[in-house]
Known about the structure:
- By secondary structure, chain A is mainly alpha-helical.
- In chain A, about 70% of the residues lie in helices and about 0% in strands.
- Chain A contains twelve helices and two strands; from the N terminus they run αββααααααααααα.
- Chain A has a two-stranded antiparallel sheet with strand order 1-2.
- In chain A, strand 1 (about 40) and strand 2 form a beta hairpin.
- In chain A, helix 1 (about 5-35) packs across helix 12 and helix 7 (about 155-180) crosses helix 9.
- By secondary structure, chain B is of the alpha/beta class.
- In chain B, the strands form six sheets. Chain B has a six-stranded mixed beta sheet with strand order 1-3-2-4-16-5, covered by helices on one side.
- Chain B is globular.
- At the A-B interface, loops of A face helix 3, helix 4, helix 8 and helix 16 of B.
Amino acid sequence: MSFKWKRLGENSLFLFPSIILTAVLGIYPLFWMLRYMFYDYAGYGEALFVGLDNFRRLMRDGLFWESVGNTFMFAGGKLLLTLPLSLLLAVILNGKLRGGSLLRGIYFMPTVISTAVISVVFYTIFNSYNGMVNTLLVKLHLISQPVDWLGPKHAMLTVILVAVWGAVGNYMLLFLAGLQSIPQDLYESASIDGANAGRRFLHITLPMLAPVAQMVMMLAIIASLKGYESIMVITEGGPIGKTEVMYLYLYKLLFPVSTGSPVAQQLGYGSAVGFASAAIVGAITGLYFFLSRKMNKVY
Amino acid sequence: MRKKWLGLGLSFMLAAGIAGCGGNDNNGTSDATNGKSDGGTATPASEKSQPVQLKYWTDDRHDQEYIKELINKFNETNGDNIQVELTVMSENYTQSVDIAFSSNQAPDVLRLKSANTSEFVKKGYLAPIDGYLTDDMKKKFGSLLIDNVNRFDGKVYSLANTGLTMRLVYNKDLFAKAGIEKPPVSLQEMVDDAKKITEVGKSEGIYGFALNFKNPKQAFDRSIREILSLSGYQGLGFDMKTGQFDFAPYSQVIKYFKQMHKDGSILPGAETLDIDPLRAQFAAGKIGMYLSFSTEPGVYKDQFPTEINWAGALAPTLDGQIKGTSEIVSAGTWLGISAKSAHQEAAWKFMQYMYGDDVLKTYHEKGFGIAIVPSIVEQAKNPDTNGMEGFLVGDHDSLWPAAPSVTPEGSNYADAFFKYMISDGDLKTITADLNARYNAALSKAVEKGEFTVTPNPAFDPSKPQGE
């Protein structure tokens, strides 16, 4: 057996578990979803073929389009705060800072803590009747009456802040890895040429970081558009749908919350919503790749 | 290279071996117990025939110690060599049951609730029990056999044990502090009382009213449902007389809720309040009143022990007049037998034991649920749980016929009315839109043969079962 074939055999063996899991848990259900989006199906009984009815319903479903708008607001707010903050932290930690490793660990910690746990903690911090934020602000005389952080006016801002807190450490670490791969001699020669810290950041760090930044931003965009877990725990999409994002709306169709009275699954319509949601995320990611195509070219 | 392949092969075999050792047919996610586990010794197959192994799944956690005791006793005393294994699920019970049935690992006996029974019947999970029912049992449970609750297409799938009554839960100390002598009997009184309590308590963070509005349907299905049934209307918006949805009575109730919100009498942040944080605030004496199920006395005994002086009272009605009966919910079902069980007769013997007078009587007396089986209600003593006296089944409580459950396009009635309650909108338009969407979904479900609807022009809300 030639070396090439042996190598192929080894590689296949290592890939086998992932391929099986992806095929069984990812691709196989995907085909069912692609089928069911043309059916009226509640998870039991006969699936009734309805052609494009689910998509017609989707077009007139105000709740879905409201959730799409909320998703953009949530993702936009999260990205605007997360990316600059994580880059800033990465640049600071990339310098020779005492206790840098400890800080890196602390910033990364939210990434490894369960989202559900984080969300419950933030609920107790932000709730308006005895939350810590209001107690602190009242004591500091910054507000006279408790603010309803989870009410219709502020709930979106609150869930964005929670999402930023959970994501910054993760992207900081990716940016840090990118920063550490930039050759030090570039900075040294720029310093000899008289470039100050600001110029070195603008003309060396940013361009050299571009390919990593492109990937980091892509991951951040996808995660922001798909994120719903913390929202589900903190507000469950409320109040009055103000934080209902696309994937939370989808989740509720497929796994309705029991309320004591019977609630039916909507697998057919849910599949159509899932397809549309995936198409929206895919289109935005594709557009981002097109617009950022020059970022992976390092001169 | 050969060594590397050998190593990989051994690792694979080891992994397969470990996986094989770990596997068994127990799908329980938590707290599985076997009646024979404490002190029981295995009997060699040659000495005694193999016992019939039954699996019983439940998602009830509040009564698990008592149920374990019962199962241990059954395992030790039954003369048919039946061994029952109890699995108490934590969450996602319905999904776990779905997976078990689709992978042929279904339990033999299942805990059934009104929220899942019709779905389980439609999915073909349950076996009818008509053939097993003795004359005595028919007599004992006969008045509690209800279409689309425990009887579907003329076949019985489960029997009643307990039900949940719903009441206004109120803090007697706060009512006294605000100079209110008795709990409200009309919605206008409820609005006024909530305002008074807030006026005297707001400086200490005390508010007159709250509900778990994080999920408006959960909030309204434990409050407006009861207000309506006691006022003479079906509590989920269905009109028994016409066989159509009509949310007009619902819209009358929501006006009073909106008024309480406008008055500032509702606990701030109630829009994202879950039931447990609400209970914690009530136990801390921060809420004047709310509406909920008869599970509350148990909650304030074990989960949120409280020093406050509280009680349960009949829900207020639209105009202070009782024209209907307070609906007993989650009633009519308890245990059922799997259609896929290979031991249905043994499963029935276990069910028969569980539905015995002693078991049902003790279940009520220990406060796990409120007995609704007439012969048990007569025999059983009242549970010794603070606050339970206000929740016991009385003259104004009864079971209602099941209302059809439909899934309309767009938002459900609770979300639509809650939006009106805390923001704005035209109530007539909202009500008309709900009627149109719910009745369209009803027609569609009837066309598909999911259920039949028979209008009952003679329906009397003061005698919903027609007796």
